[in-house]
C-alpha cells in the first residue's frame, strides 16, 4: 500500500510477517513459506523444518543467484516454485505461500473465491488463478504455478494444497494474502446463509473512483483530550485487527474531538501497525497536513454532524457480519438480550450510499439504531465512546456468528415481542 523506501532488512520482514500469519492462525507450525527478492537478485526465504511460530532473524536463509546459500538451515523445500515465479514475473518482489483454512477449502473443491464480494478485496487481490496439482517441492509444481502467474495472476489457489500470492514488496503480498483469505472465509459463511450477491463493474468503479477532497491545514498543539483519543484509537484498532474484526486493508475508525472535528484512520496504511500520530485530524473541510484521511471520512463526518450524541464510529468487515451484508438475509439481533440491548434493530444500507457526499448515510443510524449493515461493504457501528463503539462491533460480530452457527443446528428462535418490551423497560430503551 505504501510506496515509501523500505529500510527493514529482509530477515526481519520475513520473521515479523510469518509471526503475524501464524498468530492470525493462517498457517501451521510446519506449513507455509515467505520470500523476498532483493535488488541484488538474492532471494531471502524462510527455512525448511523450523517452527513457524518461533522464527528468529538468524533462521532466515539467503539464496544467491548462483544457488549458494547463507544461513544455518536449508531453504524451504518450496524454494523451487518461489524461484520459478520470480523468473516468470520480474515485477514480483515478494511471495507468501500458506495453508489458511478457507482457501485450502477452495483448493480441495477446485474452486476460486470470487473477490467481487466487496470492492477492497477485488482491488487488493488482483487477478486470481488456479494452478493444477503437482507434488510439493517438485519442478512440476514450480512450472504449474509459474505458468499461472505468467498469465497475469497475483493470487493463486494451488489444487489440493493452499495458496500463493505475489506482490511488489512483502507488505503488499501480505495484504493480498490476508484479503484473499478474508474473501474466502466470508464466502463460506455467506453460502451457509443463502444466495451471495456480487458487485458488477459499475458498482466496483463507484467505490474505486471515489475521492475525499480536504484542504491541508496545520492544527494547533494537541489537547489532552485529543492525545487520549489518539491512544484509544490506536489501541482499539490494533485489538480489532488481532481479533479479526478488522484487517490491514479494510475498515476505518474515528473519534469526535470537538463539535466540528474528529480523528480518523489514515488511508493506505496497515491498520495493525498504526501509531497514535498516524491518525488524521479532520475539521470541517480541512485535514491535518502531511496525512491522508480515510476515504470514508465524509461518511463519518455526516454521521457526527447529524447525531451530536455519537462520539465514535467504526466501519468494519468482520467475517460473519459481512457474510450477512453480501446476502439478502437479515441479521436478527433479537436472539439474546445483550445483542438487542447493544444493537437494537440493525438496518440495511443500499450499496453505495456511504460513498456519496450527500450525507444520506447518517439517516441509517441513530441513538436508537447504533449499527447498520452496509450492502456488500461490511458494517457501520456508532458509540458514545471509542470503547462503546468497539464493544458494539464485537457484539455484532458475535451475534452474527452465533446466528450462522445456530442455522447449522436447527431453526433460529428469536425473542418474542413481550420479551423485547420487557428489555426496553428494564434498560430504558426508547
From TrEMBL:
Coiled coil: none
UniProt xrefs under SUPFAM superfamilies: AraD/HMP-PK domain-like (SSF53639)
InterPro entries linked to this entry: Aldolase_class_II_sugar_metab, Aldolase_II/adducin_N, Aldolase_II/adducin_N_sf
Keyword Lyase on entry: yes
Signal peptide residue numbers: none
UniProt keyword list: Lyase, Metal-binding
Protein's UniProt keywords contain Cell division: no
Segments forming domain Class II aldolase/adducin N-terminal: 12-188, 231-404
SMART domains linked to this entry: Aldolase_II
Lineage top rank: taxon: Bacteria
PANTHER family linked: 3-OXO-TETRONATE 4-PHOSPHATE DECARBOXYLASE-RELATED, FUCULOSE PHOSPHATE ALDOLASE
Entry protein name: Class II aldolase/adducin family protein
Amino acid at each position: 500500500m505504501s510506496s515509501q523506501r523500505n529500510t527493514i532488512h529482509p530477515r526481519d520482514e520475513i520473521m515479523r510477517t510469518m509471526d503475524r500469519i501464524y498468530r492470525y492462525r493462517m498457517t501451521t507450525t510446519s506449513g507455509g513459506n515467505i520470500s523476498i527478492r532483493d535488488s541484488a537478485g538474492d532471494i531471502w526465504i524462510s527455512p525448511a523444518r523450523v517452527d513457524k511460530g518461533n522464527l528468529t532473524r538468524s533462521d532466515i536463509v539467503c539464496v544467491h543467484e548462483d544457488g549458494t546459500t547463507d544461513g544455518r538451515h536449508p531453504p524451504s523445500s518450496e524454494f523451487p516454485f518461489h524461484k520459478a515465479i520470480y523468473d516468470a514475473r520480474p515485477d514480483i518482489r515478494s511471495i507468501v505461500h500458506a495453508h489458511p483454512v478457507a482457501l485450502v477449502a477452495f483448493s480441495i473443491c477446485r474452486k476460486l473465491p470470487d473477490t467481487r464480494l466487496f470492492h477492497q478485496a477485488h482491488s487488493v487481490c488482483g487477478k486470481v488463478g488456479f494452478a493444477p496439482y503437482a507434488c510439493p517441492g517438485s519442478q512440476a509444481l514450480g512450472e504449474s504455478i509459474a505458468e499461472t502467474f505468467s498469465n497475469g495472476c497475483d493470487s493463486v489457489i494451488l489444487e489440493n494444497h493452499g495458496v500463493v500470492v505475489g506482490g511488489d514488496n512483502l507488505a503488499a503480498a501480505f495484504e493480498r494474502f490476508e484479503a484473499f483469505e478474508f474473501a474466502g472465509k466470508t464466502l463460506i459463511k455467506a453460502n451457509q446463509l443463502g444466495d451471495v450477491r456480487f458487485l458488477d463493474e459499475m458498482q466496483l468503479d463507484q467505490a474505486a473512483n471515489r475521492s475525499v477532497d480536504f484542504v491541508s491545514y496545520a492544527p494547533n498543539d494537541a489537547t489532552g483530550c485529543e492525545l487520549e483519543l489518539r491512544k484509544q484509537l490506536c489501541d482499539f484498532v490494533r485489538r480489532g485487527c488481532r481479533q479479526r474484526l478488522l484487517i490491514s486493508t479494510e475498515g476505518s475508525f474515528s473519534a469526535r474531538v470537538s463539535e466540528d472535528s474528529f480523528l480518523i484512520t489514515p488511508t493506505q496504511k496497515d491498520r495493525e501497525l498504526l501509531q497514535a500520530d498516524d491518525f488524521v485530524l479532520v475539521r470541517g473541510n480541512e485535514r491535518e497536513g502531511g496525512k491522508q484521511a480515510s476515504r470514508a471520512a465524509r461518511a463519518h463526518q455526516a454521521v457526527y454532524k447529524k447525531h451530536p450524541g455519537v462520539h465514535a464510529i467504526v466501519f468494519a468487515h468482520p467475517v460473519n457480519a459481512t457474510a450477512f451484508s453480501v446476502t439478502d438475509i437479515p441479521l436478527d439481533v433479537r436472539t439474546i438480550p445483550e445483542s438487542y440491548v447493544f444493537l437494537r434493530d440493525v438496518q440495511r444500507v443500499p450499496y453505495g450510499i456511504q460513498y456519496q457526499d450527500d450525507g444520506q448515510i447518517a439517516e441509517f443510524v441513530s441513538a436508537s439504531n447504533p449499527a447498520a449493515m452496509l450492502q456488500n461493504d461490511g458494517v457501520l457501528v456508532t458509540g458514545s465512546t471509542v470503547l462503546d463503539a468497539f464493544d458494539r462491533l464485537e457484539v455484532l460480530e458475535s451475534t452474527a456468528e452465533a446466528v450462522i452457527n445456530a442455522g447449522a443446528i436447527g431453526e433460529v428462535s428469536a425473542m418474542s415481542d413481550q420479551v423485547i418490551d420487557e428489555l426496553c423497560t428494564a434498560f430504558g430503551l426508547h
